[in-house]
Amino acid sequence: MTMFPTEEASHRMSTTGRQGRPARMSRDKIVEMAIEIVTQEGYSNLSMRYLADRLGTSTMGIYYYFASKNELLGFLFSLPDGALDDRVADSQDPFERVVRTSEAVARFLELHSWALAGVLDGHVGIEQLTRNHGRILTESVRDLGFDDREAAETVRGIWRIVLGESVMRSSPRPAVVGARDRSRVSGRAGGSTMPSVAETVESYLAGRLARVHRRLPSG
C-alpha cells in the first residue's frame, strides 16, 4: 500500500526541503512539473528520472526534495486546496460535517483532473487522497450513532457517491437537441432535476440512519 507522509511531515517538506539541496531547483518547480506530466502523459510515465530530465537536472536533484516517487505522490495529494472550510470542520452538527466534507472532496476532484485520474486508475486510494477530509468524515459518521462496522460501510458509500459525481462532472456533455434535454444534462443550471452531491449524500445518510434506528431495541 502506498505510504503517504504525515501532515506534519508534509508541512515541513513544503517549507524546508532537504539539507544541501541544489540552489537552482525548488520544490514548487518539481511539483508543477510532476502535475504537468501526470496530467498530459499519465501516471505511468512519471518517474524520478523522467522528471529530472524534464527539469534539466539530475535525479539526485529530485531526491534532495523527495525520497521516492511515492513520497512525491503523497505530497501532491496532500497539497492544501482550501476546499474544506474550517467553519465546517469545527461545526457541532455531525450531519452537516459529513455533507460539507463530501462536497469539499467532490470540488477538489473537479478542480484537479489529475487527482481524479489518479484515483480512477488505481495509483492512489480515495482514503489516501482524502486523508485529512477522511478523518473528519469518519469521525462525523460515528458521531451520528453508527458503530465501527456501520460507519465503515457508510463512509465507503459516500466515497462512491463522491467519485460518481466527480466523474459525471468531468465527463464531456453530449450534444443534444431541445431545451429540455439541454437542461437535463447541463448540471445544476436551468432547473435541472439532477441532484447535487449534497442532496445525494443527505438522502443516503437519512436512509442509513433510518435502518440503524429500526434495528435499535425499543424502550
Automatic annotation (TrEMBL):
HTH tetR-type domain boundaries: 24-84
DNA-binding region boundaries: 47-66
Any one GO molecular function term: transcription cis-regulatory region binding
Entry-linked PANTHER family: HTH-TYPE TRANSCRIPTIONAL REGULATOR BETI, HTH-TYPE TRANSCRIPTIONAL REGULATOR RUTR
SUPFAM superfamilies, per the entry: Homeodomain-like
Signal sequence bounds: none
Keyword annotations of the record: DNA-binding, Transcription, Transcription regulation
Name recorded for this polypeptide: TetR/AcrR family transcriptional regulator
A Pfam entry, by short name: TetR_N
Segments of this protein annotated with the region Disordered: 1-25, 174-194
